[in-house]
Amino acid sequence: MSMRKPRIYWLFRLMMVTAVLLSVACSEKKKNVMPVATTIVVQPFSGISQKQVDAIAKRLKLHFHAVKVSATIDLPKLAFSAPRQRYRADSLLNFLLVKHPDKNVIVLGVTDKDISIGKNDIPDWGVMGLSYWPGRSCIVSTFRLSKMQADEPLYKLAVHELGHASGLPHCPVKSCYMRNAEGRNPLNEETGFCEKCRKYLVGRNWLIQ
Prior knowledge:
Blueprint: H1 7-31, E1 39-44, H2 50-60, E2 66-69, E3 80-81, E4 86-88, H3 89-99, E5 105-111, E6 115-119, E7 122-127, E8 129-131, E9 137-141, H4 151-165, H5 195-203
Parallel strand pairs: 1-2, 1-5, 4-6, 5-9
Antiparallel strand pairs: 3-4, 6-7, 8-9
Helix pairs in contact: 2-4
């Protein structure tokens, strides 16, 4: 024997289902929020000088609560592109994520080899660096930097890619570290983060005066 439930019962059930759906939607949105990473792992690849690795790690300690340097490793053979003797930057980003699975860190790969990406109809476009935006891995190369004075440009290149990893897009301010290179090397024109980019990064737990 069954009894027909009163209308108030069905209204109550509808309210409960609606509340559950809203709570699920909110939790899904929270999952899309970029975690604030306070630890940077510098991953040197074979060929880069230890002096340059130590120099970049020292500069990055001015902006992050913890900077660690991993032991030097070889570049993965699967990332090598034979036609122009370059390494695929996007493949290196994936490699770094696998090598460093800790989701509480951002990994900065450093190499002296030429790296490239596919851009528009160009399958092998040489770049100085690449990063997920946002994400946990980025790669920079000294190949296109001056061999005599590479430390300062390497620092600017590193914080540019780490800025992308933290969620920053390119910036229209020409003196900002986050400007778009547009196929050139404008690093000598960059003097620091603009006020807008600086405020954003401070909100992402960067240490910037």
